[in-house]
Amino acid sequence: MSTFTIFLVLIVVVAFLLVVVIMVQNPKGGGLSSSFGGGGTQQLGGVKKTTDFLDKSTWTLATLLLVLILISNVAIDRGGSANTESKALDPDTQTAQPLPAVPAATDNTTATPADSTGN
């Protein structure tokens, strides 16, 4: 199993967890805490802390996802060659095709049958 495959699996797992955490939250501020009866002034068993946990876990998972994506770039297999420079910039390996030949412009000085009779 390559390093990139490991990073890819981690990225998929973190993305799935991030979707789950976001879906649990309620955009109106109720979310998971309101389903436990913590919508009023009474806070039973620290349900108020649930929204703080979901908010912190969202930011943590989003940051982790970004870091994993950036680090996975290092693990990408570049085709096995050690040379990663562009061949377009190397003047020795120019493989440009020659441009197709354009016909020369003609100035239409050919004689027509009417001109050749001398009339």
From TrEMBL:
Residues 102-119 have a biased composition (Low complexity). Residues 82-97 have a biased composition (Polar residues). One of its GO terms (biological process) is protein secretion. It is found in: Cell membrane. Residues 82-119 are annotated as: Disordered. Keywords: Cell membrane, Membrane, Protein transport, Translocation, Transmembrane, Transmembrane helix, Transport. Its main location: membrane. GO terms for cellular component: plasma membrane. It is a multi-pass membrane protein. InterPro entries: SecG. The chain crosses the membrane at residues 6-24, 58-76. Pfam families: SecG. One of its GO terms (molecular function) is protein-transporting ATPase activity. Involved in protein export. Participates in an early event of protein translocation. PANTHER family: PROTEIN-EXPORT MEMBRANE PROTEIN SECG (PTHR34182). Belongs to the SecG family. This is Protein-export membrane protein SecG.
